[in-house]
Write a structure and sequence with these properties.
- This protein is mainly α.
- The protein is about 75% helix and about 0% strand.
- The protein is built from 16 helices and no strands.
- It starts with a helix and ends in a 7-residue tail after the last helix.
- The relative contact order is 0.06.
C-alpha cells in the first residue's frame, strides 16, 4: 500500500462509524487483537492461536459485503469507510502485496469513481493492477473484477473505446469462470450496455439490456421455484419421516442490491424509450416481481407482477401469462399481504 493509501485509510477509518461498519466490528464478542493469557496451557494456546485470524477474516467478509451493498445502493461515500476497513484487515492477515487485497482496492476505486474522485480511483486501480501483474496464477475471478473497475473509470472519464475494451475482457473472464449466463457475467453486460447507450448506439444497448434481463429472469425464476419446493416439503413433512431438507441458496445482500439497481435501471430505460416494446418491458417487470417476492417486499412484488400481467394481456403471444399468474397467486398467499 502506498503512502497516500495509508493516510487515506487512517483518516477514513475514523469516519467508519457513520457507515455503521465500525459499530458492527466493535460488537464482536472478542477483540480481534486479543492475545491469549500466558496462564493458559500450551495446548490450549496453540489451539486458540488461529482464532484472531478467523475473526479478522470474518471482519473482512463483513466490511467487504457492506461496502459492496453501499455501492449498488448508490451510497458511494458510505462505501468508502467499509472498504477501507476491508483493506486494513486484509493487509494485516495477508500482507501488503497479496492478491487478497485486490477486491478491497477495487471497492475503493469504484467508491471514488462514484463521488467523482477519478485521480484517487486511478491510484487504487494502479495498486490492484500491480498486485495482479505480480501474481502469475491470479484467478480469472479476480481479473474480471479488475477489468470491470477499469472499464467503469474509463467510462466515467468519457474514454468509451477503452471502457468497452475492459468490459469485454470482464465479460470474457467472468463467463469462463462462472458461465456465460451467470449473474457475474451479466454485470459487465449491463455496464457495456450503459456505454453504448451513452454513445447513442441504441440497437446494441437494447440487445445487451435484454441479455441482462434474461440472465436475472432465469436466476430469479430458479430461486422462486426452489423456495416453493422448500415450503412444499416442509408442509408435507411428517414427524415419522426422515428429514430431507432442500438446499436453500439465498441471495446475498449485495446481490439483492445489485439486482434492484440493475433491473430498475433497465425498467426505466424501457419505460422511457421513444419506441415502446411491451414484451421486453413485461419481462423486466416479471423479474422485479420475483425479486421483490424473494426479499419479502410483497407490495412491490404485487405492483410489478400486476403491471407485467396487464402488459402481456395486450400482446398476441401470451406464453408468460401463466408464469406471472402463478407468481401473483404466491404473492397473494402471503399472510401479511394487503392490497
Amino acid at each position: 500500500m502506498d503512502v497516500t493509501g495509508r493516510r487515506l485509510l487512517d483518516a477514513e477509518r475514523q469516519e467508519a462509524g457513520r457507515a455503521g461498519t465500525h459499530g458492527k466490528v466493535c460488537r464482536l464478542p472478542v477483540p480481534v487483537r486479543a492475545s491469549l493469557p500466558w496462564l493458559v496451557p500450551e495446548e490450549e494456546r496453540t489451539r486458540g492461536a488461529g482464532q484472531p485470524v478467523k475473526r479478522q477474516k470474518y471482519i473482512i467478509d463483513l466490511t467487504y459485503s457492506t461496502a459492496q451493498k453501499f455501492l449498488w445502493d448508490g451510497k458511494h461515500e458510505k462505501a468508502m469507510p467499509a472498504a477501507l476497513h476491508a483493506l486494513h484487515f486484509s493487509t494485516e492477515v495477508y500482507g501488503s502485496s497479496s492478491v487478497q487485497l485486490v477486491p478491497a482496492y477495487l471497492l475503493l476505486a469504484e467508491a471514488c469513481i462514484g463521488v467523482g474522485h477519478h485521480l484517487q480511483a486511478s491510484k487504487y486501480l494502479s495498486q490492484a493492477q500491480w498486485i495482479v501483474l505480480r501474481t502469475p496464477d491470479c484467478s480469472a475471478a479476480v481479473r474480471h473484477r479488475l477489468h470491470r473497475s477499469l472499464g467503469l473509470l474509463c467510462a466515467a472519464e468519457g474514454n468509451f473505446e477503452q471502457a468497452l475494451h475492459h468490459l469485454a475482457n470482464d465479460i470474457y473472464l467472468a463467463s469462463s469462470t462462472f458461465g456465460l449466463k451467470s449473474i457475474e457475467a451479466s454485470g459487465g453486460c449491463f455496464h457495456m450496455a450503459n456505454v453504448f447507450f451513452r454513445q447513442n448506439k441504441m440497437d446494441i444497448a437494447d440487445s445487451l439490456y435484454a441479455e441482462v434481463t434474461d440472465i436475472w429472469h432465469a436466476f430469479l425464476m430458479k430461486s422462486v421455484q426452489t423456495q416453493e419446493q422448500i415450503h412444499k416439503s416442509r408442509a408435507e413433512k411428517s414427524p415419522f419421516t426422515e428429514d430431507k431438507e432442500v438446499r436453500e441458496d439465498n441471495m446475498t445482500e449485495a446481490q439483492q442490491a445489485e439486482a434492484i439497481q440493475v433491473l430498475n435501471a433497465v425498467l426505466g430505460i424501457r419505460e422511457q424509450a421513444p419506441k415502446q416494446q411491451p414484451g421486453k418491458t413485461a419481462r423486466v417487470l416479471h423479474a422485479l416481481a420475483m425479486l421483490y417476492y424473494l426479499i419479502m417486499d410483497v407490495s412491490k412484488a404485487y405492483e410489478m407482477g400486476t403491471k407485467a400481467f396487464d402488459l402481456l394481456k395486450q400482446l398476441p403471444q401470451q406464453e408468460s401469462l401463466e408464469a406471472i399468474g402463478h407468481l401473483l397467486k404466491l404473492i397473494n398467499s402471503k399472510p401479511f399481504y394487503t392490497k
